């Protein structure tokens, strides 16, 4: 099996001005994740590192650069899942942590639980020695402007006007066919305080099962949750559809039924890929051997030599 | 379509026979309560909400009053509700001092654009909608305090003696709804969220297919996406009973932990299955009440 790390930087109404930033960010994330695999790291390490690089990147709606809730604060969700044993970890509405995906991983590895929320998640972080950032550290200028925009025009979007932002995620498969998935987000612009998202729900934002495949989703969170999007895509793959067909068909069904858009990335246990979105754009990239593949527009699939 | 309200009072070890009798009485009452709402002009969502509320209010169930305690001796609750007609859903997680989390979940569904509110945010939302929080500790009972003390002594992965509650319903037009509510796991970390707040794990409803509510080992149910798995199995043609039995079995075999589920198909067929020792359940259809708690047990009573 040829190892692959496939990432997305969020589906939505990404404006032209943000396209180069997004593409650079996803290409970087894919190559970081791939390097981890090549140097003997696990698939879980790979997806975690890929997502961390996007959490650090202001261009993405995760970690630093997250959209704000109605109170002007950052509250984040993240989940990670291992295909080998279906173990998973997640955090929701957690504040002032640089890497929610790493905290999610700690929940998976150091507790008997799979999801910690709010204060409890923050306290767990402290106990684990994860630094708490000073309040407001994750608030970017763009996110602040996006909230002002929302307050004026009152429209929840994951990608806002001039400030393109969206959930991030990664899926990976190693040479032995082991898979993992990870997703992280700041949520929806102008959301209510305490609003939890599909990104914290196994089966909606994230899913991985070595018997079937791995999926990470992005887009209109409430719709993704109501449709159980990740699990629905997995189910199609389980019944014989390729990753591409499963992703495309399920996204289409969700969008038709719930009249809202989303995107997803998927790897099947055979190593074939699914990358699709019903929104205007979705930044994605993957590395396989020394090639980086990427795109952001419908029908775009560009290839270049990896720099590492 | 013959309306049906089917409820469960939690899957678990339930080793105490006296408690088992109380649970049976509770689920029978809840099924009747829900059925009455459904057949006296209420909607199917009203009916499942009413059935779950009645169990939240009863100390014997691990939901609302009588919820198990977290490591800090406090009650933190999860609940979710879903309507089959348009897949609308609402949920709350790790919410404190609210008498009826299922009704708060319903408010999330009806009054916001969101599907899930957590912790302090959920409580603030409650207050915004004139839901008055209880005094801290009001939902803590002597029994739950004793249970936590016992758990602390043993520090063992106690198989849940008490379980989540839930209800599924179908009305005369074939409209479906599902609702689930819980206090979670004994001695859990503060902030531990459960499958019960997760659409697809604890709860699911789709008028084209059916409605499901699950209970048991939460982490396992979530990993398996149990409610959605049962729905998908029915979509592929399995009956409510087959789908529920098969998925519970598959999950148990794969992940080595137990759970139970109640299901209604969109044709009104009933599915009840559990891999735990026991699960209290009851449903009313017409003027008959069906109920049980042990495997292969099924009683019928005229209402």
TrEMBL record, chain A:
Concerning Pfam families, the annotation shows: Asparaginase_2
Kindly list the residues the record flags as site (Cleavage). Answer: 166-167
Protein keywords: Autocatalytic cleavage, Hydrolase, Protease
Q: Which GO terms describe its cellular component?
A: cytoplasm
Task: List positions binding substrate.
Answer: 195-198, 218-221
Family annotation (InterPro entries): ASRGL1_meta, Ntn_hydrolases_N, Peptidase_T2
BP GO annotations? L-asparagine catabolic process via L-aspartate; proteolysis
Catalysis performed (reactions) = Cleavage of a beta-linked Asp residue from the N-terminus of a polypeptide; L-asparagine + H2O = L-aspartate + NH4(+)
Active site per database record: 167 (nucleophile)
Q: Is GTP-binding included in the keywords of this UniProt record?
A: no
Q: Which GO terms fall under molecular function for this chain's record? A: asparaginase activity; beta-aspartyl-peptidase activity
How would you summarize the oligomeric state and partners of this protein?
Heterodimer of an alpha and beta chain produced by autocleavage.
The similarity annotation says:
Belongs to the Ntn-hydrolase family.
PANTHER family, alphabetized: ISOASPARTYL PEPTIDASE_L-ASPARAGINASE, L-ASPARAGINASE
Function of the protein: Has both L-asparaginase and beta-aspartyl peptidase activity. Does not have aspartylglucosaminidase activity and is inactive toward GlcNAc-L-Asn. Likewise, has no activity toward glutamine.
Under which name does UniProt file this protein? Asparaginase 2 domain containing protein
Automatic annotation (TrEMBL), chain B:
Identify the residue position(s) of the site Cleavage: 163-164
Organism superkingdom: Eukaryota
Known role: Has both L-asparaginase and beta-aspartyl peptidase activity. Does not have aspartylglucosaminidase activity and is inactive toward GlcNAc-L-Asn. Likewise, has no activity toward glutamine.
**CDD domains per the UniProt record, alphabetical:** ASRGL1_like (cd04702)
Keywords linked to the UniProt accession: Autocatalytic cleavage, Hydrolase, Protease
- Active-site residue numbers: 164
Origin organism of this chain? Asbolus verrucosus
Catalytic activity entry: L-asparagine + H2O = L-aspartate + NH4(+); Cleavage of a beta-linked Asp residue from the N-terminus of a polypeptide
InterPro entries, from UniProt? ASRGL1_meta, Ntn_hydrolases_N, Peptidase_T2
Q: Name one GO molecular function term.
A: beta-aspartyl-peptidase activity
GO biological-process terms attached to the record: L-asparagine catabolic process via L-aspartate; proteolysis
Amino-acid positions noted as binding substrate in the UniProt annotation, renumbered to this chain: 192-195, 215-218
Q: Which residues cross the membrane?
A: none
Q: Which SUPFAM superfamilies match?
A: N-terminal nucleophile aminohydrolases (Ntn hydrolases)
Q: Which GO terms describe its cellular component?
A: cytoplasm
Is DNA-binding among the key words of this record?
A: no
Q: How does it assemble?
A: Heterodimer of an alpha and beta chain produced by autocleavage.
Q: Which family does it belong to?
A: Belongs to the Ntn-hydrolase family.
Q: What is this protein called?
A: Asparaginase 2 domain containing protein
């Amino acid at each position: 099996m040829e190892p692959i790390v496939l990432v997305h930087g969020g589906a939505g109404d990404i404006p032209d001005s943000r396209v180069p930033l997004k593409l650079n960010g996803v290409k970087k994330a894919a190559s970081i994740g791939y390097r981890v695999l090549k140097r003997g790291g696990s698939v879980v390490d790979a997806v975690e590192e890929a997502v961390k690089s996007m959490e650090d990147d202001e261009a993405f709606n995760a970690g630093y650069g997250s959209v704000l809730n109605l109170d002007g604060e950052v509250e984040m969700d993240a989940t990670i899942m291992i295909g080998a044993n279906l173990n998973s970890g997640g955090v929701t509405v957690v504040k002032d942590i640089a890497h929610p995906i790493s905290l999610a991983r700690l929940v998976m590895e150091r507790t008997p639980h799979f999801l910690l929320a709010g204060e409890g998640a923050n306290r767990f972080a402290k106990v684990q020695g994860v630094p708490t950032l000073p309040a407001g550290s994750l608030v970017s200028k763009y996110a602040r402007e996006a909230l002002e925009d929302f307050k004026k025009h009152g429209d929840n979007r994951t990608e806002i006007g001039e400030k393109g932002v969206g959930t991030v995620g990664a899926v990976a498969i190693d040479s032995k066919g082991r898979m993992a998935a990870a997703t992280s987000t700041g949520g929806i612009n102008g959301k209510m305080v305490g609003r939890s998202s599909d990104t914290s729900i196994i089966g909606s934002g994230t899913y991985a099962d070595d018997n079937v495949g791995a999926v990470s989703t992005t887009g209109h969170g409430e719709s993704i949750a109501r449709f159980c999007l990740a699990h629905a895509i997995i189910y199609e793959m389980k019944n014989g559809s390729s990753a591409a067909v499963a992703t495309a068909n399920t996204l289409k069904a969700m969008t038709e039924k719930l009249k809202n858009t989303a995107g997803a990335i998927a790897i099947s246990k055979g190593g074939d890929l699914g990358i699709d979105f019903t929104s205007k754009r979705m930044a994605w990239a993957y590395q396989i051997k020394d090639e980086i593949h990427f795109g952001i527009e419908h029908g775009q699939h560009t290839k270049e030599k990896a720099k590492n | 379509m013959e309306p049906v309200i089917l409820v469960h009072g939690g899957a678990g070890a339930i080793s105490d026979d006296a408690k088992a009798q109380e649970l049976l009485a509770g689920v029978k009452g809840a099924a009747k309560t829900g059925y009455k709402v459904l057949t006296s002009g209420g909607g199917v969502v009203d009916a499942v909400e009413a059935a779950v509320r009645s169990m939240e209010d009863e100390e014997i169930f691990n939901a609302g009053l009588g919820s198990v305690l977290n490591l800090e001796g406090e009650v933190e609750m999860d609940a979710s509700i879903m309507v089959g007609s348009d897949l609308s859903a609402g949920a709350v997680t790790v919410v404190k001092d609210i008498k009826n989390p299922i009704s708060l979940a319903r408010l999330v569904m009806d009054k916001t654009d969101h599907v899930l509110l957590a912790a302090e945010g959920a409580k603030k939302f409650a207050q915004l909608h004139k839901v008055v929080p209880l005094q801290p500790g009001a939902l803590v009972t002597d029994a739950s305090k004793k249970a936590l003390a016992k758990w602390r002594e043993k520090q063992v992965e106690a198989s849940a003696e008490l379980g989540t509650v839930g209800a599924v319903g179908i009305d005369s037009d074939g409209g479906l709804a599902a609702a689930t509510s819980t206090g979670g796991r004994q001695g859990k970390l503060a902030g531990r969220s459960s499958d019960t707040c997760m659409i697809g794990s604890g709860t699911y409803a789709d008028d084209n297919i059916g409605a499901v509510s699950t209970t048991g080992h939460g982490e396992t149910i979530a990993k398996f996406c149990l409610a959605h798995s049962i729905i998908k199995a029915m979509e592929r043609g399995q009956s409510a009973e087959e789908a529920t039995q098969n998925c519970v079995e598959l999950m148990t075999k794969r992940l080595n932990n137990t759970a139970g589920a109640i299901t209604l198909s969109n044709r009104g067929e009933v599915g009840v299955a559990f891999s735990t020792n026991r699960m209290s359940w009851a449903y009313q259809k017409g003027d008959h009440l069906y109920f049980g708690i042990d495997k292969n047990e099924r009683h019928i009573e005229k209402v």
